[in-house]
């Protein structure tokens, strides 16, 4: 899965193959998120994900939400200014459409 941010950075979920190509640290989890920045650098920003199958960033560009197929849950991360992810949590959902 690939998601391009408004800053034109790229989040990619994958099994670690890209990290082996870019000769980063060994992969210790099944599925990870990698961030590719505008200068072409790639780094792992999250791991131990249970088959991420969709990503979205909130309108304020502060939170990345990932759907995990194997757990059937959404997992949210706070996005730092450098693209790093922190504070993984199940997001509180707000109904956006009137009932």
Keywords summarizing the entry:
99 residues, mainly beta, four-stranded antiparallel β-sheet, 1 helix, 8 strands, 5% helix, globular
Whole-number total of structural domains? 1
**Beta strands, count:** 8
In DSSP terms (H or I, runs of 4 or more residues), the helix count works out at: 1
Q: Give the CA-CA distance, first to last residue.
A: 32 Å
Structural class: mainly beta
Q: What gyration radius follows from the Cα positions, in whole Å?
A: 14 Å
Stretches with pLDDT under 50, minimum 5 residues: 25-29
- Summarize the amount of helix as a percent range: under 10%
The overall pLDDT average reads 79
Question: Hey, roughly how much beta strand do the residues contain?
Answer: over 45%
Major beta sheet summary: 4 strands, antiparallel
Order of helices and strands: EEHEEEEEE
**Physical arrangement of strands within the biggest beta sheet:** 1-2-3-4
- Specify the overall morphology: globular
Protein name: SMP-30/Gluconolactonase/LRE-like region domain-containing protein
InterPro entries: 6-blade_b-propeller_TolB-like, SGL
Domain SMP-30/Gluconolactonase/LRE-like region: 34-90
Pfam family, one: SGL
Q: What does it look like?
A:
This is SMP-30/Gluconolactonase/LRE-like region domain-containing protein. InterPro entries: 6-blade_b-propeller_TolB-like (IPR011042), SGL (IPR013658). The protein has 1 helix and 8 strands; from the N terminus they run ββαββββββ. The protein has 99 residues and is mainly beta. The chain has one domain. The chain is globular, with a radius of gyration of 14 Å. About 5% of the residues have low confidence.
């Amino acid at each position: 899965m690939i998601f391009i941010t408004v800053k034109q950075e790229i989040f990619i979920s994958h099994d670690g193959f890209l990290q082996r190509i870019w000769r980063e640290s060994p992969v210790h989890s099944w599925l990870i998120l990698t961030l590719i920045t505008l200068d072409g650098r790639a780094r792992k920003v999250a791991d131990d994900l249970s088959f991420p199958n969709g990503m979205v960033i909130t309108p304020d560009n502060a939170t990345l939400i990932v759907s995990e197929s194997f757990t059937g849950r959404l997992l949210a991360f706070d996005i730092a200014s450098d693209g790093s992810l922190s504070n993984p949590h199940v997001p509180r959902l707000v109904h956006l459409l009137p009932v």
